[in-house]
Fold:
Amino acid sequence: MNTIEETLWNYIDGNCTADEQKAISALIARDEVYRLKYNELLKLNNEFSAMELDEPSMAFTYNVIEGIRAEYAQKPLKATINKRIIMGITIFFVLTLIVLLAFTLSNIQLPATSIPANVISSVKIPDFGKYVTKPVIEGFVFFDVLLALFLFDTFLRRKNFQREV
Structure:
């Protein structure tokens, strides 16, 4: 667009100041090029005003909204499970069970007649009694109960999610 058209469109749309409007109306009144272009643009503006705007159908709007909703639904809600974390937790519990088994076996009182005396004197089992105190056992049980509740909750949520899908 050239500057004459831009100026006249601003005048027709009412996007100029009062001083600019006075100057443009003076130009239209005395300059033939401005007057012809103004009349042409004014006719075009009237034709644009008389046109009815096309609106999309309701089905189009619904389809667009459903497309957006489906796009967000395809994204996974949870991150993938890291197998190394699961393996670390498994190793922790296996080692804990082995230590508890060793502690239990070390505290078993067997009759002296079933095992020869030289075998008993050669086996040195460390004393875990000073390491395994009441607070340590309570903490371990508390942690196990919390973990069991968490796993049970995950199981139930997965079951409900599969029912919904």
